[in-house]
Amino acid sequence: MNEIKAEKLQFSYTAEKKILQGIHLHLMKESTAIIGQNGAGKSTFVKLLKGLLKPTAGSILYNGKDISGLTAATLAKDIGMVFQNPNDQIFKNKVIDEVMFGPQNIGQTEDEAQANAITALRKVGLEHQAEQNPYDLSLSERKMIAVASILAMNTNVVIFDEPTMGQDYVGKQILKNIIAELRKEGKLVLCILHDMDFAAQVFERTIVFHQGNVLLDGPTKEVFMHADILKKAFLEQPSIIKIAKNLGIDNTYLTEEELIEKLNRVVRD
């Protein structure tokens, strides 16, 4: 079981302004989307989980152990994070070296790291670019290199920060498959998103951050039913829910397939 508990978690850069107001969250097996407007505290929260920041109050427990004071390097074997901007993560001159760096840094042998790197690059569709310079590739491809770098480390917790940014349909499908596979492997998958459609289609649980607090938390379908509360957080419902409403369908459908099935039933009836 991989689980994280945040208890009375607070963070502030200055005494006058708290970024996180006192977060209580128990993150377990569900794949979880974390949504909210810019400045809501989402990125600060996951940086605390990864050890990139230290709480000003409260604690973070990983599988029962307090990790609040541990560094990102110490947590690297357990918690992997794909940054929003891949340029903040990539520094090698060759794709395969970039993807191998993390695995080797946590103790994998060169052969293990290379095998895991190739497997990870295959998962993101970039095995044919292994010998290329990452900065000769597009931003969306560099984003996938960053994803592969974390996958190759085989951490128990995987955090994605805006993985769909700059991705086309094919890229999003690749990410969906990766998240589903991680979930089947028993990994704890957390994802910061502004893409409500992707959140609705992929994640079992959704948490809404607003002004440093948790405004909503629950099964994704239930969370997205609360249009009034989402509006308070300056968020919109997914497109499929809007379409269903315009068609006079009351139930909440999160994917195109669900809505089409419902429409087919209506036609048959």
From TrEMBL:
Originating organism: Oceanobacillus jeddahense
Domain ABC transporter: 4-236
Source organism phylogeny: Bacteria, Bacillati, Bacillota, Bacilli, Bacillales
Keywords: ATP-binding, Cell membrane, Membrane, Nucleotide-binding, Translocase, Transport
Superkingdom of the source species: Bacteria
UniProt xrefs under PANTHER family: ABC-TYPE COBALT TRANSPORT SYSTEM, ATPASE COMPONENT, HEAVY METAL TRANSPORTER
Statement: the UniProt record of this protein carries the keyword Nucleotide-binding: yes
Family: Belongs to the ABC transporter superfamily.
Molecular function per GO: ATP binding
CDD domains membership: ABC_cobalt_CbiO_domain1 (cd03225)
Name of this chain's protein: ATP-binding cassette domain-containing protein
InterPro entries: AAA+_ATPase, ABC_transporter-like_ATP-bd, ABC_transpr_CbiO/EcfA_su, ECF_ABC_transporter_ATP-bd, P-loop_NTPase
Cross-referenced Gene3D superfamilies: P-loop containing nucleotide triphosphate hydrolases
Transport among keywords: yes
